[in-house]
Amino acid sequence: MQDVVVIGAGLIGCGIAYELAKRGASVTVYDRAEPARAASWAGAGMLAPYSEEVVDPALLALCAASLRAYPAFVEELRERTGVDAQLRHEGTLHVAFDDAAARGLAAQCEAFGRNGAVATVLDRDATLAREPMLGGNVRGAVYVANEAHVDNRRLGRALVAACTDAGVRFERTGGVVLEADARRVRGIRTEHGFLAAATVVNAAGAWAGGLPGVPAAARIAVRPVAGEMLALAVPKGFTRGLVWSNHVYLVPRDDGRLLIGATSVEREFDVRVTAQGVASLLAVALRIAPVLGTFALVETWAGLRPASHDGRPYLGRTHIDGYLVAAGHYRNGILLTPVTAQAVAALIAGERPPVDLAAFNPQRAPEAA
Ligand SMILES: Cc1cc2nc3c(=O)[nH]c(=O)nc-3n(C[C@H](O)[C@H](O)[C@H](O)COP(=O)(O)OP(=O)(O)OC[C@H]3O[C@@H](n4cnc5c(N)ncnc54)[C@H](O)[C@@H]3O)c2cc1C
After folding, report:
1. Domain membership flag for residue 356
2. Boundaries of domain holding 119
3. Nearest ligand 1 atom to alpha carbon 37
4. Please, what is the average pLDDT of the chain?
5. What kind and span of H or E run contains 299?
6. Is 200 in the pocket of ligand 1 (CB under 6 A)?
7. 328 and 257, same structural domain?
8. 47: CATH
9. pLDDT digits over 216-274, tens only?
10. Cβ-proximal residues to 322 (8 Å cutoff; 6+ apart), any chain
């Protein structure tokens, strides 16, 4: 199979590179920074399309396909590299703390169910039985059983190791420019010179829309949406699964951290963690469980979600022969990694992708002139 260049070593770029290398392609991944350290590292690792209120049917179907693909994906990486990404199928608890939220639980449950979630309403006692750490003023919850979470930092390490094992080369270099004429791609230019390639995949996350050298006909609209998060050190077994309330979520990690996320701020490529961001997350978290206020704050960080113009990722070929895009996964890029990797690699290899990518055609972008 052909030589492929992937620009961007996030979960999306590494996932595609790995699937291509397994198919016998010679793959080089270019990144200006350390692999799997941008949004793919900063994310919460929730595999939770229903809780994220994805309602677009095409996107929901893609998310559901990726959720189904996750166990085999993580197991394959674990067998190959020894790194376990700690996939946990513990479901999500949406907790109500006031009368209005409690009255809305049945409707919320029904809405989740319409989208494919396996959801049930829990009364106060059943909610506390599931999560004893919740504050005493909890009124009830909706439990979504068919959602999961994964340690995305471990997943990044596993994927990079699997790529290396499968023969993928990683090049760390800034200033990557696409080289293409009006019809087809010729390769890339970096600070080390020109490199010819018949196939180039733009997997540059929040920066994908600004990749230099892309002809107008193949441009996509991706903008950064910052998310700030923090982590507390909690006793082992403190929470059982994902907990949501008022757009704030708690995500347990096997290493004893409890992640609390996330803000959503449109302020260009700014990854500062602000006092306001931390304060707003902690205000909700301490309402969910006042005891959280007694634990150590061990980490704060921020990352950039890559948002497309219509909420769907751009996946597949462009008007420029040999130039493909896999970007714009917004809030669900960790969830969408297996299906994106398998589908885009299949497309490049001339196989039938496991899912229909028509709705994600990059040529729909308003920027494509
Ligand atoms: C706070 C937060 C919480 C999130 N929570 C979740 C969640 O719970 N579940 C979920 O599914 N998703 C979540 N997401 C979204 C998810 O993290 C992203 O959708 C996903 O990681 C995007 O992956 P990516 O590989 O496209 O981008 P990234 O991981 O950002 O990787 C892009 C890479 O491209 C490189 N790059 C960019 N431009 C160039 C260039 N010109 N030359 C060379 N290299 C370049 C960058 O250095 C970077 O390494 C969250 C995101 C954030 C910020």
Report:
1. yes
2. 92-147+223-306
3. 49
4. 96
5. strand 296-307
6. no
7. no
8. 3.50.50.60
9. 999 999 999 999 999 999 998 899 899 999 999 999 999 999 999 999 999 899 999 99
10. 180, 184, 185, 197, 198, 199, 200
